[in-house]
Design goal:
By secondary structure, the protein is mostly helical. The chain contains 24 helices and no strands. Helix 4 packs antiparallel against helix 5. The chain is elongated, with a radius of gyration of 30 Å. The two termini are 59 Å apart. The C terminus is likely disordered.
């Protein structure tokens, strides 16, 4: 096989193994982190410093600043985070992504296969989910390094190629060329971690003298800066079709990296000396991988320290670039919070599901009010039309939530605990759907009554209104219980369910007395009984929601108080 073809195949094969290992490690780390991810997400909205710290931690788990940025854009688009909060998280994400390069700098070539073996055994033999996840982290970590070793081996012949050495000389002497090269590489691979790993391997190859790096630190730094610019494209792509604030978040990510790179490109010689000073000493080819990792970390920490106090300025810049407010509201039946791009991060996706379910519960309460109004209006077409319209909104929104939760399960990224939580949320969604179905059944019964030329007595209408009031209170309390995961509130739902049972008996008896006194037609009994049956079933559905709260199912939220204050003041 031609030598050049071998090099190309080795590079793409090693890169594929590296990316597979990194993605597998990310998934396993998320599962291993489990509930801790939920706690980390709780820091996102507290203050800029905590936001930056949370951004760094989340990225360290996800092993990708792009994944964190996509998640944050989803939160901003859903209105769960303000623009300043999102920007601080983005700054932290840029620090977190440097951890991958620091890992790459370790020289563990002699231990790769034992690491892979240990990881495989832990994952294959253990029955405990947490141990299996830790095993997968170790196994993927080994694969990741094996990919790096493969790339390093095939790059060795390049170091002796006069054409390649000449090209690297040009990159070293023309920093802008290195920036462009780094940006293009990252645009193609869509992973700055991968291109930096390639850069670390490349720089570790000896030049013609056999001692110095083929590219040197001053040649590697511009490529590193280009990698940081190239990684912003993922955020920009993720913001397409999102809200203006989501677009601003993506642009802030680009400005952060581009502005830092533009400044550092003029400081390359001095920056290289500083990095060499803080890095281990030794032969250049032995220490340059760590030097590149330290340069990457230093660059992002310095940029974050500079920009963190200037977040208001960043907000002003991005709002100048993207002007105006979001005027186009989503159709009522469209999900307000769900974002398909966030499904790969289960903890974040469950936050969005919780918000959408909360909204669905509020719509169900409104639907009950619409039903009450429609009953009082006694066949008024305008009032009935409003009820039917809102019923269709609830149905379509419930379908969207079901599809989202199903895709979340299908992603295969959920831990056992997250699977139980998500299954509970799906059950809540189905219970709300059943309440909507019962409302529809009652409406259809009332329509049959009207079509038969009959009318409900005022007493019957009043009794139905009382039943709806009871259901509304039960639903409100059930949603409160699941919102907080409060078993005490859930107990009140179980106790108050008896009110509906007593009301059904009381009003059924009252109806029979009206029939006996010839106030009401006997043929109405089956209709009235059908309506009361549906009310009783709705009460059962509310109990089902509350039971999930007793099974430790609860909505997952970001910092609720901060979120409320943000909404109240209409933060940018």
């Amino acid at each position: 096989m031609n030598e050049n073809v071998k090099v190309v195949f080795g590079l793409i094969g090693g890169l594929a193994l590296f990316l597979y290992g990194m993605n597998s490690m990310s998934d396993a780390l998320q599962k291993a982190a489990g509930e801790r991810m939920k706690k980390i997400l709780g820091f996102l909205t507290r203050n800029p410093i905590m936001g930056a710290l949370a951004g760094a931690l989340v990225t360290a788990v996800l092993q990708s600043s792009s994944a964190t940025t996509v998640m944050v854009i989803g939160f901003v688009s859903a209105g769960l985070m303000s623009l300043p909060q999102a920007i601080s998280v983005i700054f932290g994400a840029n620090i977190g992504t440097t951890m991958t390069a620091q890992l790459m700098a370790f020289k563990i070539s002699n231990y790769i296969y034992p690491i892979i073996f240990v990881g495989f055994i832990l994952n294959f033999v253990s029955k405990k989910e947490k141990v299996k996840n830790i095993g997968m982290v170790i196994f993927s970590f080994g694969l990741l390094f094996e990919g790096i070793e493969i790339m390093g081996e095939v790059m060795k012949p390049l170091a002796g190629s006069p054409v390649f050495v000449d090209l690297m000389g040009k990159v070293s002497s023309i920093p802008v060329l290195g920036v462009v090269l780094g940006a293009v590489m990252t645009l193609v691979v869509q992973s700055s971690s991968a291109t930096i790993a390639v850069l670390q391997n490349l720089a570790s190859q000896a030049g013609p003298d056999g001692v110095s790096s083929v590219i040197g630190l001053t040649g590697a730094i511009p490529i590193l800066l280009g990698d940081n610019i190239g990684t912003t494209i993922t955020a920009l792509l993720a913001s397409i079709g999102q809200s203006k604030n989501a677009k601003r978040t993506a642009i802030a990510h680009s400005i952060f990296n581009i502005s830092g790179s533009c400044v550092f490109i003029f400081l390359v010689p001095w920056f290289a000396k500083f990095v060499q000073f803080i890095s281990p000493k030794g032969n250049e080819i032995d220490v340059i991988s760590r030097q590149i990792a330290n340069a990457h970390t230093t660059f992002n920490i310095v940029c974050t320290l500079v920009w963190l106090p200037l977040i208001p300025l960043m907000v002003k810049i991005v709002t100048t670039i993207i002007r105006g407010n979001d005027k186009t509201e989503k159709a009522a039946f469209e999900p307000k919070y769900l974002d398909m791009k966030v499904i790969e991060q289960p903890a974040a996706a469950m936050v969005l599901v919780s918000k959408e379910l909360n909204r669905l519960g509020e719509l169900a309460e409104s639907l009950l009010s619409d039903l009450k109004t429609a009953i009082v209006a006694d066949g008024d077409s305008k009032t009935h039309g409003s009820f039917i319209e809102n019923l269709e909104i609830v149905h379509q929104l419930q379908d969207s939530v079901t599809e989202y939760i199903t895709r979340l399960f299908a992603s295969g990224n959920l831990t056992e605990q997250q699977s139980e939580q998500t299954a509970g949320l799906l059950y809540v969604n189905n219970s709300i759907q059943r309440i909507a179905d019962r409302c529809e059944d009652i409406d259809q019964i009332c329509e049959k009554v009207n079509n038969n030329g009959k009318r409900l007595t005022s007493e019957a209408s009043s009794e139905m209104e009382d039943c709806i009031d009871i259901i509304q209170q039960l639903l409100k309390k059930a949603m409160e219980a699941i919102r907080k995961g409060d078993a005490v509130v859930a107990e009140t739902v179980f106790k108050n369910k008896k009110k509906m049972h007593k009301a059904e008996k009381k009003y059924s008896k009252a109806h029979l007395n009206r029939v006996k006194n010839e106030v009401c037609d006997a043929s109405m009994t089956r209709y009235f009984s059908g309506i009361m049956y549906n009310f009783d079933r709705m009460a059962d559905n509310c109990v089902s929601i509350a039971e999930e709260a007793c099974d430790n199912v609860a909505f997952i939220n970001l910092d609720e108080e901060t979120g409320k204050s943000m909404m109240e003041r209409g933060a940018v």
